Amino acid sequence: GAGVSQSPSNKVTEKGKDVELRCDPISGHTALYWYRQRLGQGLEFLIYFQGNSAPDKSGLPSDRFSAERTGGSVSTLTIQRTQQEDSAVYLCASSFPAGGGYEQFFGPGTRLTVL
Amino acid sequence: QKEVEQNSGPLSVPEGAIASLNCTYSDRGSQSFFWYRQYSGKSPELIMSIYSNGDKEDGRFTAQLNKASQYVSLLIRDSQPSDSATYLCAVRPGGSTLGRLYFGRGTQLTVWP
To answer: HEC profile for A24-80?
Structure first.
């Protein structure tokens, strides 16, 4: 079946502009995660959605970052007033508790460049 | 602070050798452990998951878990040049079944022909 999809694959923006990144999880997956990976760095957790529960926003680096998940499926990560340090690959993952695995599967990512 | 540490590498092995990748974690209550492979410029790809002490084998890959020592490893037998990638260890803390993963910084593996 189809995996996690993300769009756009690349985004170049100017400092101060707002950007929206989209994630479409694997069909039927109830949990959705956003991570960020700066060049040469590890994965940094941003936010996690599970069903109708309140999202875990503990990883969002500032109030310029927000995310929503509509209808328990597609998610949008919004970065307002982008800064150069926001340049990174933004990765989305989804998960479903089948067989106790709770494994996370990643999408291809969105490469964000802030000029 | 829940930390995941990996041997820093880079690790270089000849084709056909065994590559050994190591990971330690700080949260003693952690229950779920994962290894991801990340090719340059690509997203992480799940290759192994392990939940119980001992070994788990899948093809050329063997994951080993020792919860008492808070240690998880990945062995790649008969290493191939196509195994050259960064390997990420990920841990889910105890008390959480679907929560976030904590990732190590990765070990870069090069398999030379």
So the answer is: ECCCCCCEEEEEEECCCCCEEEEEEEECCCCCECCCCCCCCEEEEECCCCCEEEEEC
Alpha carbon of B53 to those of A79, B14, B63, B99: distances in Å? Answer: 41, 30, 10, 21
In this complex, the residue of B44, B49, B98 whose CB is nearest that of residue A31 is B98
Which of A31, A48, A103 lies nearest to residue B49, judging by beta carbons?
A103
pLDDT tens by residue, B35-80: 999 999 999 999 999 999 999 999 999 999 999 999 999 999 999 9
Say how far apart CA B79 and CA B8 lie, in whole Å. Answer: 19
Q: Does B25 touch chain A (CB under 8 A)?
A: no
Contact B63, B52 (CB under 8 A): no
Q: What is the pLDDT of residue B9?
A: 81
Segment among A69-73, A74-78, A79-83 with least mean pLDDT: A69-73
Distance from CA of A22 to the nearest CA of B (A): 16
Select the residue from A47, A95, A103 to test the B interface by mutation, using most B Cβ atoms within 10 A.
A103
